[in-house]
Amino acid sequence: MFLWGAATASYQIEGAVAEDGRGPSIWDTFSHEPGRVADGHTGDVACDHYHRWPEDVALLAGLGVDSYRFSIAWPRVQPTGTGPANPAGLDFYDRLTDALLAEGVVPAATLFHWDLPQPLQDAGGWLSRDTAHRFADYTALVADRLADRIPMWITLNEPFVHMAYGYATGVHAPGLALLTGALPAAHHQLLGHGLATAALRAHGARQVLITNNCTPVRPASADPADLAAAEAYDILHNRLFNDPVLLGSYPDLSAYGPALDCVRDGDLDLISAPLDGLGVNYYNPTRIAAPAPGDVLPFTDVPITGYPLTAFGWPVVPDGLHELLTGLAARYGDALPPVYVTENGCSQPDEAGPGGAVDDAGRIAYLDGHIAAMERAMADGVDVRGYYVWSLLDNFEWAEGYHQRFGLVHVDFATGRRTPKASYHWLRERLAARRESLRASGSPAPASP
Fold it and tell me: For a surface tag, which of 166, 289, 375, 421 has the fewest beta carbons within 10 Å of its beta carbon?
């Protein structure tokens, strides 16, 4: 069974940051620090999904997706990151889950999409081993309430990005610039994944995944120095987070200094517990050259030219998704579980035109090209089970604030008004045609995984 879906994340859409017992997250703190987010934007209101969720469920139902990937806000469920659950927080996700199921939309819940409770950050955040154990406790609270109805669980979203931007370079919360000193945050996130996987299994979760941001890495030239730099970057971005989960071992990290000294006996057994799928987020390939003299890191990121760019300045390379999926299958072989493309999408300078319509033809071309690339990978034998568009709604785009629009649905951030874009209607028609084709062939409709 293949799932077509759309995705969002809690801090990016929910708002209501101080309502019903929710505690502060690192993104609440970070976004209120001057100079951290473009134009001082915060997620205080965002899309106001916390109050307007019935409208958003109706948009999903109207779109005709099989599944909705959303994230659960840890500080809404467990305001300080420790202790008992906040009943009002769980009640919110309980209502959302039941509403999705009533519409025939499969809920796919991500447990951590970067909004760590601030008190845990004050105690060290993901640099502390204790945070992994607190994550398992939180997971158990959520699973105890919702695992009977949510069939698909994702432990972490993009641990590479959270480590690299939040702990190594400081452009995301919590705003630390430790460079290679951020590596313990990689291991502790992965340990948290392993402990959370055990907690989910203990509560009867049917499917458990992790979602990694992956990129095909292309050397800038055939020069041996560029090839070595590209290999070092591939290890950091891709293999550091895929190898321990799928193979039970870390790749060679010697290019980044001394070996991780925070790994303890038994950690990799937890991290590599069998999964039901690997979530893959893809946006673009990465081109890497040798570092310049004096650089701290063993690589330099250089532009990919010859392709159109999104509003974010990212190159639009649909074939990169085919390259990524077939590359994962070649690298991991039988160790690779079924793959779900859990995010794929683009930012565009979308504005409502006359009559309120939003014509995002560039997004339609982007999605069409990437879906075709994914389907070529499937024809080449890669076991892909789902595709989720990022994102259902325009939202708070982290350090970019509200300046980057990824949604199938336009949001007027002054009023909260939702307007489906041309891409929403295009995808709805494509999914409706798929359902009609399934009916004509006698194939069963999608069911819960």
Answer: 375
